[in-house]
Model the fold of this input.
Amino acid sequence: MCGIVGYIGEKKAAPILLDGLSKLEYRGYDSAGIATIENGELSIEKCKGRLQNLCDKIQNGEALQGKIGIGHTRWATHGAPSDLNSHPHKCSQSLFTVVHNGIIENYLPLKEELTVHKHVPFVSETDTEVIAHLLSYYYNGNVLETIQRVINAVEGSFALGILCRDTPNTLYAVKKDSPLIVGKGNGENFIASDIPALLNYTKDFYLVDDGDIVMLKKDSLFFFDRKLHPLKKEPFVVDWDYSQAEKGGYAHFMLKEIHEQQKAVNDTVSERIGEEDIVFEDFHYGEDELKALHSIRIVACGSAYHVGVIGKYVIEKLARIPVEVDVASEFRYKNPILQKDVMYIMISQSGETADSLAAMREIRKQGYKVLAVVNVLGSSIAREADSVIYTHAGPEIAVATTKAFSAQLAVMDMLALKIAHVKETITKDAYKEALMTLRNIPARIETVVSNADKVKKLASRLKNVGSVFFIGRDIDYAVCLEGSLKLKEISYIHSEAYAAGELKHGTISLIEEGVVVVAIVTQPHVREKVISNIKEVKTRGAFVFAVANEGDEEIRDIVDFVYYIPKTNPVYTPSLSVLPLQVFAYCVAKEKGCDIDKPRNLAKSVTVE
Ligand code: AGP
Done:
């Protein structure tokens, strides 16, 4: 997704803008640019490709003067990646300059109106350029009123950074659906798409809500609603420091975050699991409400959806209530049948995924409460949900999620246990034992991750395979979904996750000499069945890499490579069995020389449809 930064203060803006953009590279982009104003003169430098191209072009910002500016990394939606389509975009008179994250859905009729009837010369194929020209067209000398008119005219999602040459000491910003935060400094102020962009400069932030218009001067901030009524906002302090969002000596953010999982899960569970109970801080479901629950519905995208599928197995096993899991992009358009006595749960690392945000709004519009499981503090989904359980995974930079995934899994485990305890579908002893198990999961995660190097030699052997199948039954199948996605998204190797019992209904026709099959065999009640499925593919020439429980020696004689995980309560094995799959995907991608932290075509937070 696009990244936005803005600065106004006493320092040279360009180097700060470039630094901020470098912290947003993980969002995925194909071009970058910045604009500054100095002595009433506007300067814009932008180019296709990596941010380093822009840094080289302007000597790391030294070539651009000015103590006010905006910057952008573009993830192309309208118009191919090119210098001309890069942001910032300006109007013909160079009066207004804009950076934009989101999509202007009615840009074509607006562009036609401006082009045909107002003879405005467009230079790019982007939707964003319409905003720059509209600002100029509506300009009446009052920038705030002009902005207000423009955002009333456009439809879609937009986080905007705006410069106006008539007000060189003022930076403007607008938020609707796309993420935007304000950073407060000492004699300087900032805007950005995400917190990591500004952690080198401030820890004091303001949340910007949909419809807000922000006016930033170097030593003051003003917030307005869409009617230009002043808004009072309280700052919040972020307890991250940027080193947490730096690589910390690892080759990639993904590897660092794989190794941070023990801490991420421990920070997520330790404060919440007491001797006798599980307490969530912002959880507005009383015991009677939990007792009355007749089902749960989970809505999410990608890996967060896979957490939902695993959560389905855990909740149904422990709390004995049916769970439905929906892909958010499907849910929001299927005219969903919503009912009372259902707990609706959104799972999202970024809290900004457009499909998930829209799905949540649909549920709330119909009058139902939503519980959000989110990692990013103050993100849109977190702010609009009725209850929020934050994962405490810290900033997750790699596009491929690992530590946030594991932290989300831990939340689902705790939630399932809490509901089971209230509904008395498990005994008090089993509950106490489960609390102990959950408290020990972080240590077991550390054990698995620290031994995961065994997977490395396997990866070098398999890096050129054309396709990989992930098979498992029951909760292991749900983990296969995540293992398959991890491999696909960072190594670009095609793979499929299959319920092992389903292979014989078609897919086994694809199994031949040399095909790689990853089999997860951790569930005792279906172990024999999975072993039969493994034998079926082995006899047809497959190379099988199994993830199994320590002590299961029989597996070693059946497969080509086995990775053992510590034995634990079967319902909690996903927190462990997913780890070698993460490392496997990482090692294969590294062997292939892929851009692991920023895989092609992908973005960390998909804030557009
Ligand atoms: C997972 O590795 C991917 N980055 C992607 O599937 C991601 O899980 C999905 O886009 C959902 O993102 P969210 O959790 O921020 O909503």
Summary: The chain has a mean pLDDT of 93. The chain has 19 helices and 25 strands. The CA atoms of residues 373 and 389 lie 5 Å apart.
